[in-house]
């Protein structure tokens, strides 16, 4: 179902504005709840001959206000980087994504201006789908009643979708996914996402320490505030050939050999060396082996890596690739 996606870093220019079916949200993770929203959006757009469109914000509004109030600990962690989010939205049939910069101008925009300038003027919204608790405008002053009144005036329909829950009544939300990843519960995260948690990116050059230790790795930069818990994971890597490759990976700050605190993803492919520099790969997290540790010396680190590789091979021997 993957579509060709048109990305706008702000609202489309006048020449590119066409009537759309729109939904608004951050869509971090594009989890099962989001997927239900996007299926409804896609259906309504098809029935009405409109472009299925998502408006999202960068940074996350909570991140903006956390920075503004000098409370960085209140900023949410991120399940997906922008590349993975856009890929997931395209796979859900979204035709256009508008990334609206969340800044002082947008934070201070009145609810009526949000409707008239953004939804009606810039987006040409004809059908709008939002959550039942959707609020917008300065100090969250806009609500569903205001949207519906404006829709009658400006000619757009407003629909809502209740929360998506599993058979146990648990809500599918980005917060739930973040909680699962924070404690290393990959099975729960996969259930909520509808797919394995993954990180993608271009392979970059590292310090070549893994090669020196006998375990060469592919290095990927990780977006700030990654939701996943630091640790050692069994993973599979896509993008190195026609089929996935088994690997063991470290997500963290490399405390034994560095102290600058930058998070890095390092994956060691188990079935042989690869020439991966510059390639765009997707690393899927399958099973958590242990937390990240600081070892007293390189021999201790090497022994731990060897044990991690043995445990990863044992996992694949039981579960397959």
UniProtKB/TrEMBL annotation:
Does Transcription regulation count among this protein's keywords? no
Entry keyword annotation includes Kinase: yes
Q: State the species of origin.
A: Bordetella genomosp. 2
**What is the designated name of this protein?**
Riboflavin biosynthesis protein
Catalytic activity, per the record?
riboflavin + ATP = FMN + ADP + H(+); FMN + ATP + H(+) = FAD + diphosphate
Q: Which InterPro entries match?
A: FAD_synthase (IPR015864), Riboflavin_kinase (IPR023468), Riboflavin_kinase_bac (IPR002606), Riboflavin_kinase_bac/euk (IPR015865), Riboflavin_kinase_dom_sf (IPR023465), Rossmann-like_a/b/a_fold (IPR014729)
Q: Which Enzyme Commission number(s) are listed? A: 2.7.1.26, 2.7.7.2
UniProt keyword terms in alphabetical order? ATP-binding, FAD, Flavoprotein, FMN, Kinase, Multifunctional enzyme, Nucleotide-binding, Nucleotidyltransferase, Transferase
GO annotation terms (biological process):
FAD biosynthetic process; FMN biosynthetic process; riboflavin biosynthetic process
């Amino acid at each position: 179902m993957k579509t060709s996606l048109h990305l706008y870093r702000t609202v489309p220019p006048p020449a590119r504005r066409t009537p759309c079916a729109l939904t608004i949200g951050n869509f971090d993770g594009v989890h099962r709840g989001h997927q239900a929203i996007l299926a409804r959006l896609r259906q309504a757009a098809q029935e009405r001959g409109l472009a299925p469109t998502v408006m999202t914000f960068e940074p996350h509004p909570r991140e903006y206000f956390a920075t503004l109030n000098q409370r960085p600990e209140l900023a949410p962690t991120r399940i997906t980087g922008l590349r993975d989010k856009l890929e997931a939205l395209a796979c859900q049939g979204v035709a256009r994504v508008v990334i609206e910069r969340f800044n002082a101008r947008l934070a201070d925009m009145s609810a009526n201006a949000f409707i008239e300038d953004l939804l009606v003027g810039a987006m040409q919204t004809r059908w709008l789908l939002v959550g039942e608790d959707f609020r917008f405008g300065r100090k969250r002053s806009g609500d569903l009643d205001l949207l519906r009144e404006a829709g009658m005036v400006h000619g757009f329909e407003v629909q809502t979708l209740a929360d998506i829950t599993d058979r146990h009544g648990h809500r599918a939300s980005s917060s739930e996914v973040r909680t699962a990843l924070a404690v290393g519960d990959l099975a729960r995260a996969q259930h909520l996402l509808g797919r394995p948690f993954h990180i993608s990116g271009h392979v970059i050059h590292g310090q070549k320490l893994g090669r020196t230790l006998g375990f060469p790795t592919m290095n990927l930069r990780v977006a700030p505030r990654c939701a996943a818990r630091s640790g050692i994971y069994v993973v599979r890597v896509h993008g190195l050939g026609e089929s996935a490759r088994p690997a063991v990976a470290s997500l963290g700050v490399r405390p034994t050999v560095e102290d600058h605190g930058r998070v890095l993803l390092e994956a060691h492919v188990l079935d042989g060396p690869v020439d991966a520099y510059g390639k765009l790969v997707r690393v899927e997290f399958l099973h958590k082996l242990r937390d990240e540790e600081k070892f007293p010396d390189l021999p201790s680190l090497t022994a731990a890596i060897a044990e991690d590789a043995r445990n990863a091979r044992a996992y694949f021997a039981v579960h397959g690739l």
